[in-house]
Task: inverse folding
């Protein structure tokens, strides 16, 4: 278990009481349960809802924000001062409202707790103070991780209940749509309407079930020992990992780059196996596009496309793993496979990933040293990973316990929050509009 849990049992008399402001989380009870745990520990907790889904899953007292993005920084700063907030808690740093909040929080010298899916998966979540993924302040030199490596990792296994996750996502969307009247300016951070994604997701699930036997046959062919192949797990185009943190404007650009390189520089006996992200819900037919692009590149049958995710056995039998910045690259390192990251992944550094370009990777790829990989993971866990999950009751309970420990530990010795008891004066028209929009 995460070593920071020892802080969870510390006495209230030895801890500083803080004022936490929660912003948007995920479609689960994680943030609400975390807020309640902080309250139980003697801290003060506030929350601002951006839509009906947020309101549904946050079970504690909260204020609703019903105005547009332009007026959000002023509203937020007034609340931060009024509530004497010391810490801001949010999930992801690329959502427009969150990006603006981070700027305000930094300017006021507040501590940020930015959550994200785990850099290591499964069983882990990420919590950082400066930013996540491409915005992370993690060092890009392997020596820094080796110097701070903690004890060997021994996480409690966390199951992800996909039925629960899907049900809660539908509930979140339904509440968001039903309460549109209260949050008329809210713009969801994903480009497709949720109903479009649900319809596309249902179609993909049906296709995966229909093609399961054919997919199993193809996997058996690949792992049978006679086929040599490289693996490329696709990522979701609308995810910030692509739209914000990569060199590519679209996944199509990456497809053209990888296929052109493979056709020109990979030994002719090698194949390329492309796997679809298991949570892909866009209406675009990536399988068709990939196979057509392979035909244009003259690769034909050398490229295969699997729609049921990326199981470990596919990684283990590969000659190497190509990622843009997917966390599957971390899994490839653990399983002893050579890995190349085409963009600035947190694990893309000398000593872990191939650093000499994609064209040379096909012929010169070598796996990282297992001891270095193990110590890197220990250092990463010590810096920003907590054991837990978001979509099952046991996983959430574990994540809450470890998150509280990490959040309280990082406050030890920190200066007290700025005294914001008196709100900064604001222009009268905007102030009046804010109060009318968010207070009953």
Result:
């Amino acid at each position: 278990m995460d070593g920071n849990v020892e802080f969870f049992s510390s006495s209230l008399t030895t801890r500083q009481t803080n004022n936490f402001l929660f912003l948007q989380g995920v479609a689960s009870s994680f943030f609400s349960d975390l807020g309640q745990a902080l309250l139980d520990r003697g801290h003060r907790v506030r929350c601002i809802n951006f839509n009906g889904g947020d309101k549904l899953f946050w079970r504690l007292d909260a204020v609703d924000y019903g105005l547009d993005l332009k007026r959000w920084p002023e509203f937020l700063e007034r609340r931060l001062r009024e509530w004497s907030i010391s810490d801001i808690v949010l999930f992801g740093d690329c959502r427009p409202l969150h990006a603006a909040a981070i700027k305000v929080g930094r300017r006021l010298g507040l501590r940020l707790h930015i959550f994200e899916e785990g850099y290591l998966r499964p069983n882990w979540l990420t919590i950082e103070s400066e930013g996540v993924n491409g915005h992370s302040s993690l060092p890009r030199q392997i020596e820094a991780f080796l110097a701070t490596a903690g004890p060997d990792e021994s996480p409690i296994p966390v199951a992800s209940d996909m039925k629960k996750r899907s049900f809660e996502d539908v509930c979140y969307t339904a509440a968001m749509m039903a309460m549109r009247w209260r949050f008329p300016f809210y713009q969801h951070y994903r480009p497709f309407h949720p109903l479009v994604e649900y319809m596309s997701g249902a179609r993909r699930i049906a296709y995966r079930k229909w093609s399961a036997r054919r997919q199993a046959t193809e996997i058996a062919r690949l792992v049978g020992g006679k086929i040599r192949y490289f693996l490329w797990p696709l990522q979701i185009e609308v995810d910030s990992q692509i739209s914000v943190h990569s060199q590519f404007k679209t996944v199509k650009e990456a497809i053209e780059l990888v296929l052109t390189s493979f056709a020109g520089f990979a030994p002719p006996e090698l194949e390329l196996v492309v796997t679809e992200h298991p949570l892909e819900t866009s209406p675009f037919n990536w399988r068709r596009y990939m196979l057509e692009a392979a035909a244009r590149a003259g690769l034909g049958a050398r490229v295969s496309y699997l729609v049921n995710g990326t199981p470990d056995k596919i990684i283990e039998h590969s000659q190497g793993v190509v990622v843009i910045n997917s966390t599957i690259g971390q899994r490839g390192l653990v399983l002893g496979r050579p890995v190349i990251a085409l963009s600035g992944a947190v694990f893309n550094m000398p000593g872990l990933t191939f650093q000499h370009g994609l064209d040379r990777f096909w012929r010169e790829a070598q796996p990282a040293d297992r001891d270095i990989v193990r110590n890197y993971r220990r250092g990463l866990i010590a810096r920003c990973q907590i054991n837990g999950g978001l979509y099952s009751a046991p996983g959430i309970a574990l994540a809450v316990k470890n998150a509280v420990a990490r959040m309280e530990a990082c406050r030890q010795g920190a200066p007290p929050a700025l005294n914001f008891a008196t709100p900064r004066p604001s222009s009268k028209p905007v102030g009046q509009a804010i109060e009318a929009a968010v207070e009953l």
